[in-house]
Amino acid sequence: MKKTMLLRNLLFSAAWLLITTAATAQEEEKTKVMEIYGFIMMDAGYDFNQIHPDWYDVVRPTKLPSYKNQYGTDGNTYFSVRQTRLGFKNWFKTGLGELKTQFEFEMFGTGVDAGQTTIRLRHAYAELGKFGAGQYWSPFMDIDVFPNTVEYWGPTGMAFFRNIQVRYMPIQGDTRLTIALERPGASADQGVYDDRLALDSVHGRFPLPDLSAEYRHAFKWGYIELAGIVRKMEWEDQNPTGYDLSGDGVGWGLNLSTNIKIGPRVVFRGSALYGEGVQNYMNDAPVDVALKNTGNPSKPVEGVLLPVTGLVGFFDINWNEKFSSSFGYSSIDIDNSNAQNVDAFKKGQYAIGNLMWYPVKNAMMGVEFQWGDRDNYKDGWSTSISKLQFSFKYNFSQSFYTKKND
């Protein structure tokens, strides 16, 4: 009887081993070639205070009123599906290594489409071996600093920019080194001279691409990353009358960021940034260049690059498999020039706290309290906004495979 039981167990074990081995071998024969992914997301909330009507469903200190009742009355309810997203990833084997592509868009209108629910490109990017090209995260920013919020725009003091670029990645993996040439661009503030016709003849020129780089060193507890950028900007007076307003400047910035695992359930995400003339790489900043009074009669004003400081600090907490939270603070501070308007943007602050529930796989429901604050340059104006937002998010993805020998 014992021999019969032993033989039966041996046969069962052998059969199970054959089945699992065959399944593993079959799985190993497959390789992923395409993934369709995204999510449907609905936000509903209440703005206790005013914000520019095109930015009703986010917290952007630069879009808060610069004087009393600039955007009407306090207290507005909003609904939005603008965070909804769709993306495609592909992987191809080539003689030069694996080719990876990503095409992704969302429904959050900005620029001329600000305030609208419309298609907006996020990523159009490809990598082949150690080289990449297309629209993707700038190496000057660290997307892993972005906290687990339901608020769309994110920390005001964070470098955040998807830019068109060509990049080289000599070191890849958890520890990495990336160097990129990026599309240049900047914005300017004419300040108190905004109504002077002489300024209409001054035009920006960008003779060189922006040069950015990042180095991340991974540890068991997280990572430390240092990123930098250098950029050449010129402004040419095409029709100088009386005095020439032409000038140039070299913008630069350093961004130190980290993720630190504090135990099995808590992650700290933080960054500290300083630079001059790098505002268009920031998540929420106004202009890179402004006019400055010189006191020189032959050239009373000149363009200068504005210094900027950005700070981010957030904690993401996974309470258990069903609940998580995120809370923290961010700020941005601009060193204004003396020819800017007194109501020019000076400082922005941002803070959130939330509780998220994951009732089933691929579904999330969250509630979040949001706060933002704006200080003007010189008129003493300061204003803030408080918001309460409820969000519902449903993820989806579908992967496609092929056999390795196909």
How is this structure best described in words?
The structure is a single chain. The chain is built from one helix and 21 strands. 30% of the residues are buried. The strands form two sheets. The protein has a 16-stranded antiparallel β-barrel with strand order 1-3-4-5-6-7-8-11-12-13-14-17-18-19-20-21. A three-stranded mixed beta sheet has the order 9-15-16, with no helix packed on it. Helix content is 7%, strand content 55%. With 406 residues, the chain is mainly β. β15 (289-293) and β16 (301-305) form a beta hairpin. Residues 10-25 have low confidence and may be disordered. It is globular, with a radius of gyration of 26 Å.
**Assembly state (oligomeric):** single chain
Helix content: under 10%
Strand portion = over 45%
Biggest β-sheet: strands ordered side by side in the sheet: 1-3-4-5-6-7-8-11-12-13-14-17-18-19-20-21
Number of helices: 1
Number of strands: 21
Outline, from the CA principal axes?
Answer: globular
Secondary structure blueprint with pairings:
Elements: H1 2-28, E1 30-47, E2 76-80, E3 85-94, E4 97-108, E5 117-128, E6 131-137, E7 162-171, E8 176-182, E9 188-189, E10 202-205, E11 210-219, E12 222-237, E13 247-262, E14 266-276, E15 289-293, E16 301-305, E17 307-318, E18 323-334, E19 345-357, E20 363-376, E21 382-403
Parallel strand pairs: 9-15
Antiparallel strand pairs: 1-2, 1-3, 1-21, 3-4, 4-5, 5-6, 6-7, 7-8, 8-11, 10-12, 11-12, 12-13, 13-14, 14-17, 15-16, 17-18, 18-19, 19-20, 20-21
